[in-house]
Amino acid sequence: MSLRAAGCVLAVLGMLLVVGARAQESGPAEPATEPPPELRYEVVFEGVEDPKLLLLLQQVSDSRRLLDRPPNSRVRLRRRAENDQPNFVRVLRSEGYYGAEIAAEIDWDVVPIRVVFAIDPGAVYRLERVIVDVAPPPPETRGETPERPDPAALGVASGDPAIAQTILDAEAALLRRVKEQGFALARLEPRRAVVDHDTTTMDLTLAVLPGPLTRFGVTRIVGHSGVEADFAVGRLPWRPGDTVTPELLAEGRKVLLDTRLFSTVQIRLGGNADARGWVRTTVEVNERKHRSIGVGVGFRTDEGPGGNVSWEHRNVFGRNQQVEIELEGTGIAAFLRASYRQPDFWRRDQALIARTELAYEDPDGFESQSLGASLGLERRLGERKQVDASVAYRAAAVKDKEDDDRDVFGLVSLPVNFLWDRSDDLLDPSEGGRFKISNQPFTDTLGESLVFNRTQVSYAHYLQLLEQPGLVLASRTAVGGLFGASRDSVPADERFYAGGGGSVRGFGYQLAGELDDKDKPLGGRSLFEMSLELRARATETLGGVVFVDSGSVFEASLPDFGQNLRTGAGAGLRYFSPIGPLRLDVGVPINSRSSDDAFQIYVSVGQAF
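User: That's the sequence. What structure does it adopt?
Assistant: Structure tokens below.
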């Protein structure tokens, strides 16, 4: 390089340095242009008249979902519209529109910009030929084949709309029906659907591979520690060689959960069956704590504050033996109870139950101190039915406040109870009913030859009028009778009484019947009660009720409807807690007497009935 050329280069470098220095002194350079503005737009659907279909299309549209995040370029907005179209195709086909046409147009000349989806759904395609294909059994098995269900029974008859969810439901129903026949290892094969656009029809083939007819083989329990394995296996409703069905598997899970020894129960079948079709079954359990303490409180105007505390052990000797001790008290009574329950006594659906109770009662009509014990059997008779029978003895000193006489009784009885509970919830039922009948013959072993029989029948029914919001009509009727002895001969604490929070609300405890000249209840040899309650649930946690109760007791052995029934009415609030509804009821007597209070208040856990 010559000296002249070198000098020119140095001059240029010097000029660049000077310009750079001035640029630093003047601060950062201003941007040449502003960022592009956001393109505000709206989305319009044309050609869709079905509201349900329109809602589905809107739910899968990214253009509509991202309205609050507008793009800053036309390219991006156009891409959103293009990306929506495959989603629309899937939705339309799922609803049976296999020949739909979709076009997207963008009007850039309006504010906001309009993104228009012109959709022509076309005709709903319908099923033409529907075939249910059941594969033949494996050659190494005995050759049993499940019954092939009719397509119409699965919900996919010829002529029905070719809706995706309907087809999926039919597949699930097919698999369920095959498994119900004992083919527990059955699995679905890929479905085949052929669409004919000329006739707007679809030919559908549903296929299932049933596998062998499966039977229970060895069953083992895993995850247990305090519960003996043979007890848990013995509770299961199947034995080796029984056919595997979903019903038996569900029942097995239920019976183990009903013991209240396990928090979770999972039943798994082995993946393969042997040559006989027998499969290994594994029952995986998680044990819950076997001891629990319960505490409850309540208040009733007629009985005062009350409460109870209980302790329970549900697995005393490792086989679900249960011991429970409970102390309960109110302003007019106190009870100390203890019970022992031995399940699977002689047979799987039967339990041995021993009970004892120390009681003190001091209501308006009598004062009683007693000690009783019983030993009996409880048996399940089927789904939600049970009967129990026992022999019982109760020693009692009872003072009748009408004449202040105190009598001592030693009552031997043979109580029998039958219960059929078809309700859907223990504490807050909304459907079904509860029927109970009890009979108890008595013989006095300490006094004169007193013999009498006590019978009572009750039924409660629950009818859901509306699901949302929750509206339930609940009704209850109870009838009872004492036979074989006069009213005055029967111990006062064994007579029938009406009135109170679980009876005729609005009247005091045991006061909805005949009173003596001191306004003390005499009790009766027969009972009739009926209740009607409308229960409304406003929110997940709050609700209310209005109710009418009526009833009385009678001196005769059968209710005398010629006498006046005592009637109470009122309203209440409900707070639906995790442990059940907490109730606050206020009842007033409709046909009150001078001795009756103006109202009664009841606070407790659970519905009135």
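Confidence is low (pLDDT under 50) at residues 1-32.
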